[in-house]
Amino acid sequence: MPKHALSLDTAATRVKAKKTGKTAQRILQIATEMFAEKGFEGTIMDELCQRSGVNKASIYYHFGDKIRLYDSTLTHLFKRVADPVLQAVAQAETPLQKLRVFIEVFARNASQTHAMPAVLMREFASGGIHMPTPAREQMQRLLFALKIILSSGHQQGVFKQTDPLTTQFMIVGTLCFFISSEPMREAIPAEKKLDPTLDEIVIQLTRTIESALLSPTIENT
Prior knowledge:
12 helices, single chain, mainly alpha, 221 residues, Arc Repressor Mutant, subunit A, Tetracycline Repressor, domain 2, globular, 2 domains
């Protein structure tokens, strides 16, 4: 093996090790909370040091500057949601089953990873000016999977021909808005809880999308 190949591999291993240690994980945890709460612009490195108990030199050692930290944080965050969705979709059999699984698993994992919907909604609102390319690629993985589901369903006569991006907006946008707006909705005074649960939202969303996508022959069976 050439000497330069060994050195590059060793360097890559060292970089990975920097980001997987206890200190790096602590930085990621607090950075995730702060980016979700305050966005990229509102997150101050001095406050991150205070909340994480890690000095600035350590943050720079593990992640470099604020832009690289945002890159690592969002990519890790979005991947935690995208990976289980794609794994579940791969195990489903029919296009309709894959679509249902896509919605259900995305909803469950986005809900369990509260920072992800909050960060994504902030990026939507800002036009994605700070969205790192690797993080954006995680969303593109979901879009590509959805495109295959819809295309396969159309070829089998299950779905009408439709735009996958529009469908992804319906799924991701609806669920992320529902999850991220929960604190605001809970702050509204009410004698009893009126909002639907996440499970109810998933059922209603799935019915709405299926109603729009299913071909007439399938709808009537």
